[in-house]
Amino acid sequence: MIWGDDGLTNLDEADVYGTDPLSPDTDGSGLTDLQEIEFGTNPLYYEPSSVSYRVTTVYPDRFETEMVNLQQEEVDRWEYQADLAEDPLYGPIDLSSVQPAGDILYPSIGNPRFVDITDPSSRTFSIYVKAWPFEFIEDVKLELVDGTEIVNVNKVGESWDDTNWTREVTVEVPSDIPEGLYNMKVEKGHNNWIEASNSVQVLDGFNSPFKFVQITDLHIGKSFSVGLELSISFPLYSDTFSYNLYESDDRSYNTARFMALLDRINQIEDPDFVVITGDSVDYNHEDSMKAFRGALEHAEVPVFAIPGNHERGGLLEAEASFDVGLVDVEAEMSFIPYP
Description:
By secondary structure, the protein is an alpha+beta fold. Helix content is 17%, strand content 32%. It contains six helices and 15 strands.
């Protein structure tokens, strides 16, 4: 018998888990007892963390939105994984395995393409690839992120932009392609394959209602302020502005917190997409950008990522940028979306 409407039998609630058979959410965490058990958190105890996100569901005539806090134990278990990593400051991301976005400017991991196979106009779109004038696009494929399916994509047109040194390639996705999140693979020149991971979402019709998650100000990586002293004096006024360089001593530089967010989003929320609204890293430090991109590849849904002022490097001269695939960072790190 099930009284609490959480999917657990009364016998299991009483004898196995110690949860309340009359309540679907014994500890008031916002997750049902069954969700907590399957997710690996304690259904009897709830301690909110400072890590939060916003979930919004859009209906034809209204929308509903709420802020949600992760449980502290969700954050702790990812911090524990970070502590076991070779580089705990960015654990559990192995920075040496993270590759830059490469030459595919659009679509990308932070600026994906949605394809509705029920709409012929949606199945045809342009991709943009950095290339030399003599480099042509030979082939385009889509591969499910879990590696279980590879689909050939028809190339129906190609043109050269000598201002931006890019190739615009018009492609057509077949109508019988399975739904899912795909990596795009492009053969630029002979047998030179490049990839844009997590960059194409294929749907069999758009959902209505649809749900998305917003997260912001992750501030992954080293912190900084400006090494500058400036004095301004007036006859009746004097002030000194002073800033000093420092590094954060936060465990894992917030990377583990981001992984905890992605874990909750993947396993509990399952939204149609995620929006990250800026300041994903604390400043444009190469390892910080690598950690952000490495974590982003764990997302199981499309992610739209908007850079903020911290990705631009703030007031310090930024280090050589690591191209995370959000936007075009070539032109003085202007972060202009492409296309």
